[in-house]
Design goal:
397 residues, four-stranded antiparallel β-sheet
């Protein structure tokens, strides 16, 4: 079974091209209407934790069928009560296997062929699902464009990006609230998932890019809440999304920086100027990644380190190796940053120093010693939240 949508559409895929009887859909639907006594397939729901049979009452039929897939439409009597406190299970059992043959006449299904999958939280109907998804996507795109345009304008006019970062930072922890062990309805989860694109800078189509360059093993999410918020497994690269591509970009910049330094040592003036500008840009980039994406880095690296997987797949061992390094860096970073700023407190107002490191203390009153507490608490709050939702997710409220 491939997936079940929030509108009750369950898709079953077949590995080979199938040769179904032309009237198979009618036969199955007639079985549901009581016009065909011999069962072809059986569909049932296994209630989850604290669920009642009354809440899982449903009807079903075959909405579409083609060479490689079959879609079962599920009509719940109480869709908003499905998979709330626990996860309800959708089970399909093929009884007459002879009707499910491939083009070569082979019966692919084993005896007592049963497919099952957890049902996600449901919308009232398909129209409601589509409207909520479209509206939340539009709002998230508008918000993303607004933040991006603010950033570009601030960069063009040499203004501070403090306002832009402040908008994003205020969203980050809130957008990860569904990771806690609190029940959220399906419509809320759609909104949270779409807005998370802004809060985590996930602007690249990584679902399509990652498989083009790397291969991954199928891994299970650490719990249902993480799967609902698109942490669909334990691989560091897949969970981190667009931010991961900042790592190879930073590596290329470091190589270019080394080349420019080599040329500047030979007396070339222009490479020296480029070297100083690139060095400032790199320091700001690395600090921006660590500081502004701290929550996402900590969540993704901790999930991966807690479930390390080294396999023949390139994405697995690259992701596992990178996650160990990132986990060490992000756990040390709050303490290292506070010590660094304390040791350099006499240079905090220096223009060159501020151009490179000002992103972590911009807008703070550096004349007061307590200013060091803010960046430390800013990062520690995210670290504690990450550890709680990962390791205490079964009891954290």
């Amino acid at each position: 079974m491939k997936d079940i949508t929030a509108a009750g559409q369950a898709t079953i895929e077949f590995t080979n091209a199938m040769d179904f009887p032309l009237n198979l859909v009618d036969l199955i639907n007639d079985q549901q209407n009581g016009n065909h006594t011999e069962k072809i397939m059986e569909v049932r729901i296994v209630p989850g934790l604290d669920q009642t049979l009354e809440n899982t009452n449903f009807d079903w039929n075959i909405s579409s069928i083609d060479t490689y897939s079959m879609t079962v439409a599920i009509y719940f009597s109480e869709p908003l009560l499905i998979s709330q406190s626990g996860k309800d299970l959708f089970v399909v059992e093929i009884i007459q296997r002879s009707l499910f043959q491939d083009k070569n006449g082979l019966i692919l299904l084993e005896k007592d062929a049963i497919e099952e999958k957890v049902i996600p939280k449901q919308h009232v109907n398909a129209v409601a699902e589509k409207l909520i998804d479209i509206n939340s996507q539009v709002v998230s795109y508008v918000g993303g464009v607004t933040l991006a345009s603010n950033g570009i304008l601030n960069w063009i006019f040499k203004c501070s990006l403090n306002f832009v970062w402040g908008m994003i930072n205020s969203m980050q922890v809130v957008l990860h609230f569904p990771l806690t062990n609190v029940v959220y309805p399906a419509n809320d989860l759609v909104v949270y998932t779409n807005f998370r694109v802004i809060g985590t800078f996930d602007i690249l189509p990584t679902d399509y890019l990652n498989p083009l360059v790397l291969s991954f093993s199928e891994t299970e999410p650490i719990c249902d809440q993480f799967e609902e918020l698109d942490y669909g497994g334990t691989n560091f690269i897949s969970n981190l999304g667009s931010i991961y591509y900042a790592f190879p970009f930073t590596g290329l910049c470091l190589i270019l920086l080394a080349l420019l330094k080599l040329l500047s040592k030979r007396g070339y003036q222009r490479p020296l100027e480029w070297y100083l500008k690139l060095k400032t840009f790199l320091i700001k980039l690395i600090l921006a990644i660590l500081y502004e994406s701290y929550l996402e880095l900590h969540l993704s690296s901790t999930i991966s380190v807690a479930n390390l997987l080294f396999s023949s797949h390139s994405g697995d061992w690259i992701g596992a190796s990178t996650s160990i390094l990132v986990a060490i860096v992000v756990n040390i970073f709050p303490f290292g940053l506070m010590c660094f700023l304390y040791c350099k407190k006499s240079q905090l107002e220096d223009e060159e120093f501020k151009a490179r490191f000002g992103i972590v203390y911009e807008g703070l009153d550096t004349s007061r010693k307590t200013f060091l507490v803010y960046p430390f608490l800013f990062l520690m709050r995210r670290m504690i939240f990450s550890l709680l939702v990962i390791f205490v997710h079964q009891s954290f409220l």
